[in-house]
Amino acid sequence: MRTTEEWSRLGGLVIAALAVLAACAVLIPRLLGFAAGPEAEVITALKRTEAYGLSLPIPHSAVPLTSEELHFARITVTVEPGAKRAEAFATLDFEGRLGATQVGTAGVERVPFVLKDGDWTPEPSAAPRLVAVVAALEARRRALETADAEALSRLLAPGNPGVAGPEWDELKMLRGRVYRAEAWYIRLEREEAVVTEHWRLQGSLPSRPVDTRGQRSLSLTLHGDEFLFSPGLM
């Protein structure tokens, strides 16, 4: 039989061993990262999001874009002189939701990284191009729901005409208007995005109630850090 003192000593040894293992779990990956260089650390940080998922704030949206499944592949990293900033280029397959809207994307992502307290951190997010496209789509959805022609015009690339035509005229006449995006399926290229939108429009006209669903293709082009619609919004 072990004495109380022996059990206490054994418990102390177990606790010490667990503390050493915990320290190794933190320090060894970092030491290996230092040995492999910043490129490997950036790739590791990006791939880590696949296990933990992403919750991406969308400007002017009450809910974030949250991932259900994502996968980064074909990652290449460029490190700036001084090794404080880097940029990762990758393909991204993403499935998730923005509230009630299903969001899927495949294509090219470009992720800036900054070195903070010894760790490489994506800045502003791990999917900034996807965020920019979804922000434009959600801004368009809100502007259509409120029939705000001025807000819609700000989402158009230079040289493109504003909203007009029979579909726009009927949308403006709707009372109790609700415009929902049931799904956005996005193909991200280097300088543009092509989106298939599944939409639902509800409301009432003087002559009849309206509850219609449809599908449309939208094109966006990159201007600075934002995506704008070209050639049209509807």
Give a description of the structure:
The protein folds into two domains: 36 residues; 198 residues, Roll (Nuclear Transport Factor 2, Chain: A). It is 34% helix and 41% strand. The protein is built from five helices and nine strands; from the N terminus they run ααβββββαααββββ. Strands 1, 2, 3, 4, 5, 6, 7, 8 and 9 form a nine-stranded mixed β-sheet that branches. A hairpin with a 2-residue loop joins strand 8 and strand 9. The N and C termini lie far apart (82 Å). About 6% of the residues have low confidence.
Question: H/E element string?
Answer: HHEEEEEHHHEEEE
Give the CATH class of the largest domain: Alpha Beta
Largest β-sheet summary = 9 strands, mixed
The best one-word shape is: elongated
Given the structure, what is the number of helices?
5
Based on secondary structure, the structural category is alpha+beta
Distance between the termini: 82 Å
Tell me the count of domains.
2
Helix fraction by DSSP (H/I, runs of at least 4) = 25-40%
**Count of DSSP E strands?**
9
The averaged pLDDT comes out at 88
Low-confidence stretches: 22-35
User: At CATH's second level, what is the architecture of the largest domain?
Assistant: Roll
Query: Proportion of β residues?
Result: 35-45%
- CATH topology-level name of the largest domain: Nuclear Transport Factor 2, Chain: A
- What is the CA-atom radius of gyration, in angstroms? 25 Å
Question: What distinguishing features does this structure have?
Answer:
234 residues; 9-stranded mixed sheet; 9 strands; Nuclear Transport Factor 2, Chain: A; alpha+beta; elongated; single chain
